[in-house]
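Ligand-bound model needed. pantoate.
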Amino acid sequence: MKIVSEITEVRNQIKAWRQEGCTVGLVPTMGYLHEGHLSLIDRARENHKVVVSIFVNPMQFGPTEDLASYPRDLQRDAKLCEEHGVDLIFHPNPEEMYDKNFCSYVDMGVLTEELCGLSRPVHFRGVCTVVTKLFNIVTPDRAYFGQKDAQQLAIIKRMVKDLNMPLEIVGCPIVREEDGLAKSSRNTYLSKEERKAALVLSRAVFLGEKMVRDGERDCSKVLDAMTKEIAKEPLAKIDYVKMVDLLTMQQIEKIETGVLAAMAVYIGNTRLIDNFLISVS
Ligand code: PAF
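Prediction:
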């Protein structure tokens, strides 16, 4: 496994693999890998070669967010990548990705304005811009994203379609701890007490999901039950709990074909997200 930090090194490697007729899968990450990322890497091994990018992208963090404290450990990440059969890690520094005159952005409309976009107004512009750059640098056949970031996944799928990007986006299921908490690099911020309190997210997700599976189609009833469940936990503060159409990210009142129920909840100072996605017929 190679670890490179320069764009030209990635391009040279990809060119060599292409000459051998290899397909390439890309797993974009911000590092501090957990089982969620590893499940994406394992899936990406359906390609001949797997590239993992590790880059804490400053552009997707707001001025008061956790860019400086975001956990980083390249050595640990490299070991995990090696164990999971990764061929190349691309670990650029911010200057390699954004030179001092950088001024081009990939911005999206309506999809980015709901859910996380409301409380993180610059976030998706940063995500779309960096992901586009990574796609242009690595030119993968397929790229892999987790369903935990459901809005990000929907936005990237839309961007690839709208801008005719020649690759397939593969969405992979949420990976949870044994007790239900969705895996996230930000879980490392939680104290012991907060870690216990954080289980309220998955409890609310499982409750809402069961109601929909049992036939409830009125979103306000499902949201009410989920919100009440979260309110039982004194350390939890809701940012949002919403049910939206998966394609438009706009709120819906009745479930007709399918729904994304998504939430962001602060546990102490840590903002966690979780969701469920259901198609009904
Ligand atoms: O999901 C993430 O870790 C990031 O948003 C991504 C896709 C790697 C872009 O920086």
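The longest strand covers residues 258-267.
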